[in-house]
Amino acid sequence: MSLTIHHLHQSSSERVIWLCEELSLPYTLKTYDRVPLLAPEEYKALHPAATSPIIQDITDNGEEITLAESGACIEYISHRHASGRLFLPPTHRCYPDFLFWWHWVNGTFQPTLGRAMMARMAGLGEENLMVRLGAERMRRALAMLDERLRAEEWLAGEEFSVADVMLVFSLTTMRYFFAYGLGEFEGILGYLGRVGSREAYRRAMERADPGMELVLGADAPLGKSLM
Questions:
Q1: What is the span of the domain harbouring residue 63?
Q2: Confidence at residue 224, expressed as pLDDT on a 0 to 100 scale
Q3: In angstroms, rounded to a whole number, what is the distance separating the alpha carbons of residues 196 and 142?
């Protein structure tokens, strides 16, 4: 097998492992512990971006490539090794929805969570303007997502896609870093229940982070924060 996934424990590289399990693709998994929170130097040396995920592969002409960024890794694996499976084609009636949600996750939602996390780490009070604006943007994002998932089984509609693979980290493992609840969002909770019933997701998470409690419910893993 030529594909190698370099997985930093409890990180967004779980997305790539899950993708390969959904596609039944063979891969070599190399895992790295945080020291104590950030990636070790060995991991950072793999790619100039120094962030997870990172994959390596051998092309048809024998050249080794190293690739970072979740979206890039997912697109590469799907199109290079699985004929574009889990990407909806432009001819699909749900293609506009797929395209929006596929880009929304890392373009809007994950950055929103990241900014809120940094504000909390900085100790800014709830009265701080940036904190209030961030909280409102986060609530608006969750409400929009909840409305979608009350109406549809998956982000792109009836069909599971890479948009779902991209999203779930932000709703689950990310809450080890930035604790937030989902109690009022029944659509999202129902969706996470469907995700948790997928055998490929369970296999992927057991390989990625054995023994880690999956955050598929309303409550964040209180007392287990990594931040």
A1: 2-82
A2: 57
A3: 19
